[in-house]
Specification:
The chain is α+β, with helices and mostly antiparallel strands. Helix content is 69%, strand content 11%.
């Protein structure tokens, strides 16, 4: 018995969630920006469905004039529905195809349209009933409504309400029996249910797509960023260069290669955890010093980092590199009896035509880095000679 009660309770909760648009409200509570995007998505879908519905009602209005009994009441109803459907199709069509519309005007006219639709159906039904015919046009219109329901919760409830009024009015006027009213109520409930299910489908589909986009974006970030420092990794930097070289812009670049001096010995002396902390401090220092000059900062792996300057000549790159070298030394990260220092190699400047340009400049920077290391470390290699802190070569005097 408890199992059956739980089953019924679960189904009732699902039904309530669908009809009351709980998915949308939960999405709004978690992500307000996403909720606005979801609302716009549902409005666009809603407008598209109204376009389809208004085209059907316009054509049925034309058929009523051509094939109807041509009474004044019937023609009036057909004309009303044709004009209102044409205006509605135009307004919603602008929303769907041009994505530009007056939201207040559109929403106001949508409700007016449902009232005009109901009025025209009453007139058509009266006309056909007066002629002793089955109100076939009204049945067709109701079939169109249930086949292409609107999905906005308030609109579907409003349309269901005015349709129910129309059905009750017709029933009272024709002295319909109880079965007619039961059928009318069943139709209205079915309409609300179908509209709610379709809205729930659109919402679920959109939320699933958004979650997939977030997952793909997160996977891309993981694949293109260094997990320890948060800087770009080799793959991420390679992608950036693909974007730059394929963008059609004439970018000139200069590469600075950074290597932490004797980091293998630091690792043996302090262990992996302290080494990771050191790498993070160095990477943060690099980001802070170079943020005004470039965003292309990458950890190549181990204790090597690379900076790529766009539209900056090598002289300016050397000056920034010296500022960075001094900042890291001033940071005074303990290393034995001294502090952690870095050596750097600066390439020349070249126009970025493909990723091969970057590879060539990186190899040049690596050669200059080797020169800096052979010159005693804690200095910058550029142009075949080292710039050393003790005054033998001053980057500001280049």
């Amino acid at each position: 018995m408890n199992t059956f009660s739980s089953f019924i309770s679960e189904k009732f909760d699902n039904l309530k969630a669908v009809i009351t648009a709980r998915l949308e409200r939960e999405a709004g509570a978690e992500d307000k920006h996403g909720y606005r995007m979801l609302t716009e998505h549902l409005e666009l879908k809603n407008a598209g469905r109204i376009v389809i519905f208004s085209v059907i009602t316009f054509l049925l209005g034309v058929l009523e004039i051509v094939l109807g009994n041509h009474s004044a009441i019937g023609i009036t109803g057909a004309v009303i529905i044709m004009i209102s459907s044409a205006v509605m199709c135009w307004l919603c069509g602008r929303s769907v195809f041009s994505r530009s519309h007056d939201s207040k005007l559109l929403n106001m006219f949508i409700y007016i349209y449902w009232v005009l639709f109901t009025l025209s159906e009453i007139l058509l039904s009266v006309s056909e009933h007066t002629a002793g015919k089955l109100p076939y046009s009204f049945i067709i219109f109701l079939a169109a409504a249930i086949a292409v329901p609107v999905v906005k919760i308030y609109e579907s409830a409003f349309f269901a309400g005015v349709t129910l009024i129309c059905l009750i009015t017709y029933g009272v006027g024709t002295a319909a029996d109880a079965i007619y009213y039961i059928g009318s109520a069943a139709f209205v409930l079915a309409y609300i249910w179908v509209a709610a299910v379709i809205r729930s489908f659109y919402t679920t589909e959109w939320l699933s797509d958004r979650q997939l986009e977030h997952t793909e974006e997160r996977c891309s970030q993981i694949a293109h960023k260094d997990s320890l420092t948060g800087l770009l990794n080799k793959a991420g930097l390679s992608e950036k260069f693909t974007e730059l070289s394929s963008g059609g812009r004439k970018e000139s670049i200069c590469v600075v290669l950074i290597d932490i001096d004797n980091f293998r010995a630091y690792n043996h002396l302090y262990g992996y955890d302290k080494s990771d902390e050191c790498l993070c401090r160095i990477s943060n220092c690099i980001k802070i010093v170079s943020k005004s000059y470039t965003e292309l900062i990458s950890r190549l792996g181990g204790d090597e980092f690379v900076l790529v300057f766009e539209n900056t000549n090598e002289v300016e790159a050397v000056k920034v590199a010296e500022q960075l070298r001094q900042s890291i030394e001033t940071m005074a990260q303990p290393f034995g009896k001294g502090v952690v220092t870095v050596s750097m190699g600066v390439s020349g400047t070249a126009e970025l035509k493909s990723r091969n340009t970057y590879s060539d400049l990186l190899n040049e920077a690596d050669s200059q880095l080797m020169l800096a290391k052979k010159s005693g470390r804690n200095c910058i290699g550029f142009g075949g000679r080292p710039f050393i802190r003790d005054g033998r070569a001053d980057p500001n005097a280049i």
